[in-house]
Amino acid sequence: MPDMQNLTIRPGSGRFYWILFKSTFLISAFTVGGGMVIIPLLKVKFVDEYGWLDDKETLDIVAIAQSMPGVMAVNAAIMLGYRMSGLSGTLVTLLATILPPLITMTIIAYFYDLFAHNQYIQLLLKGMQCGATAIIINVVFNLVKKLFKKQLALPILIFLGTMIAVLAFDVNLMYCVLADAAIGLLLLRDAKYN
Amino acid sequence: MDICLLLYWEFCKIGLFCIGGGYASMPWIQAAVVDGYHWLTMSEFIDIFTISQMTPGPIGINAATFAGTKIAGIPGSIAATVGFVTPSLILCLGVTWLLKKYGDISAIKGILNGLRPAVVALMLVAGLSFLYLSIWNVETLPEDISAVDAKGIIILVLAFAAVRRKMGVISLLAISGLLGLILGVVGL
């Protein structure tokens, strides 16, 4: 349950915007691990501590955020902000979400040029590249296994078709995705494909 | 100024088409930033991906910021990042409004059902470029496939075994980096 004292801070007040900005900024700045970690923390703040949203609204927003293009944490921040106090809420949560990575990465980008040509740093990065490759291959492997386990012909055909189009014929990714979206719209609306 | 507009527009497109977040945004960023405009090399791109795993923030934003900074300094990083989130902003607000008004989203679900397998295919293609770089230090399958980087293969095999045993991402990357350093200094 929200603190009684916190309940006096209602969406739309100046103090609301400050707390909204400050908590979103800090959560975004110190959370390693992406959307699935950031969103529960935001939920604890806005739902449990301040009572600005309820559980169901938050879950709906997460479901939509996950399926929309772009970054899930950003999508969720946009919609959470909108639900709490309209466009100005969106602006505050959006800024507070993207500012921390923007600042961190700008610093790293400058720093990177200075250090990337050092022989030892290069060896370190090479090792980490191989580790990252193992991670991504494992992610893809699990997704492909899941796709084939469902034994639905059309999704498997989409997967194989897209892979061949890109690998063998060098088709622009954008045309592939547009074609697959059209196939989905026309043929994959049945609930078994969800 | 022109370069900032171009960055804004390219990252707008990336933001619009990268569905599935995180790993799924890599093929798009690679297509535009590495293959399309040669703003970054494949090796730099994987470095961003690796750094992203250990720093806060989503990979899409991190890549936009990193590429933007390298190409046009701080204005570039802002242009790319704002471009990246513009489609999210429009689409999320649009869908919130549509849902409120109509409630039925079977069309949207159909589109997403068609896109999910496609995203897996695109990630597989991106994963292949990662693999080539790890084994041969080049971005496409080389003509002489025997010119392998021994330390790359050793780390790759060990890292893959560790991943299958569910080692955490950060410790895995840290250990892989150390292995690279040790094997390199030893002279492999």
Describe the fold and architecture.
Chain A is mainly alpha-helical and 194 residues long. Chain A is built from 8 helices and no strands. Chain A has helices spanning 4-7, 14-30, 35-49, 55-67, 72-115, 119-149, 153-169, 173-187. Chain B is an all-alpha fold and 188 residues long. The mean pLDDT of chain B is 84.
Structural topology:
The complex is a heterodimer of chains A (194) and B (188).
Chain A: H1 4-7, H2 14-30, H3 35-49, H4 55-67, H5 72-115, H6 119-149, H7 153-169, H8 173-187
Chain B: H1 2-17, H2 26-36, H3 42-54, H4 59-101, H5 106-136, H6 150-164, H7 169-186
What structural category arises from helix and sheet content of chain B?
mainly alpha
Count the helices of chain B. How many? Answer: 7
Q: What is the global morphology of chain A? A: globular
C-alpha termini separation of chain B: 46 Å
Instruction: Give the strand content of chain B.
Output: under 5%
Number of helices of chain A: 8
Output the helix-strand order of chain B: HHHHHHH
Strand content of chain A: under 5%
Task: Provide the gyration radius of chain A in Å.
Answer: 21 Å
Q: How much helicity do the residues of chain A have? A: over 70%
Oligomeric category: heterodimer
User: Describe the biggest sheet of chain A?
Assistant: none
Q: What is the number of E strands of chain B?
A: 0
Q: What's the quick description here?
A:
Chain A has helices spanning 4-7, 14-30, 35-49, 55-67, 72-115, 119-149, 153-169, 173-187. Chain A is mostly helical.
Give structural attributes.
heterodimer; A: 194 residues; mainly alpha; 8 helices; 0% strand; globular; B: 188 residues; 7 helices
